[in-house]
Fold this sequence. Notes:
Elements: H1 2-9, H2 13-39, H3 44-56, H4 60-64, H5 73-78, E1 100-109, E2 115-123, E3 126-140, E4 144-149, E5 155-162, E6 166-169, E7 172-175, E8 189-196, E9 200-207, E10 211-220, E11 225-231, E12 233-234, H6 236-254, E13 273-274, E14 279-284, E15 291-292, E16 297-313, E17 320-337, E18 343-347
Parallel strand pairs: 5-11
Antiparallel strand pairs: 1-2, 2-3, 3-4, 5-8, 6-7, 6-9, 9-10, 10-12, 13-16, 14-16, 15-16, 16-17, 17-18
Amino acid sequence: xxxxxxxxxxxxxxxxxxxxxxxxxxxxxxxxxxxxxxxxxxxxxxxxxxxxxxxxxxxxxxxxxxxxxxxxxxxxxxxxxxxxxxxxxxxxxxxxxxxxxxxxxxxxxxxxxxxxxxxxxxxxxxxxxxxxxxxxxxxxxxxxxxxxxxxxxxxxxxxxxxxxxxxxxxxxxxxxxxxxxxxxxxxxxxxxxxxxxxxxxxxxxxxxxxxxxxxxxxxxxxxxxxxxxxxxxxxxxxxxxxxxxxxxxxxxxxxxxxxxxxxxxxxxxxxxxxxxxxxxxxxxxxxxxxxxxxxxxxxxxxxxxxxxxxxxxxxxxxxxxxxxxxxxxxxxxxxxxxxxxxxxxxxx
Length: 348
């Protein structure tokens, strides 16, 4: 009985071999599955696709946090950018168009573990193809591939806000003076670099009561630097407000009952004796037109007409008469928008 019990407690070598074989099969299946995942879901090509898909979905937070996208201080310096370069455009609601019809053209593996992934895509009606250099980083859980861009795909857009420091891109309005030192804040035209996700299409413009800039589109390519000018020009409301200030100034000049109103563009010399207060009126105020100059919106010397009515007595024969005369004059001026939104007008 004891011998029989011992025989029954032994594990058959055939069973052991079966278990080992099953374990090896499971291990092989696991490694095969792992290899498949590393070639597909966790592959270099899929890494690029996910980045492009995030941009297409306007998920800029995900795209911007993709390994290798952000720039450190040394990289910013190498690109000639300040350490506090604006990242304000790295958010959703800014891009006008993301990459569509994305296709991986090739995925070339190199002996050092890096990959050159070529992707084609369309942004609006622009078809482009980009080679992304991808490098491996520490694997996920020690077994699943992880990747990073060797060179950041971020683009740099130098925005020139001409004649107004503000501009709009997508749903965002930005001030080009935000990172400028105090001595540069008064410049009539401001140029500021911005980091921007790429590839993507952007639309720039600006529209306010006083100035308006036409829409300008820019398509950024990864790792490139481009520029755009948002050219703000005065609106009719701006012109009307300057006209009102000019008219008020001329009326104040006309209110001075003297032959030559102080600090005014018109006056008259009369040799006879003045026997009444001179009465001025504005016949025709100069019509305001504004164009952008170097430091302000400018109105060139523009003609106007004033009229004087004054009684005089001749020094020669004592004859009394009334002088009624139109006097032509010209006015030139500069106009700028002050920080509080009012308009500063300076006569030249």
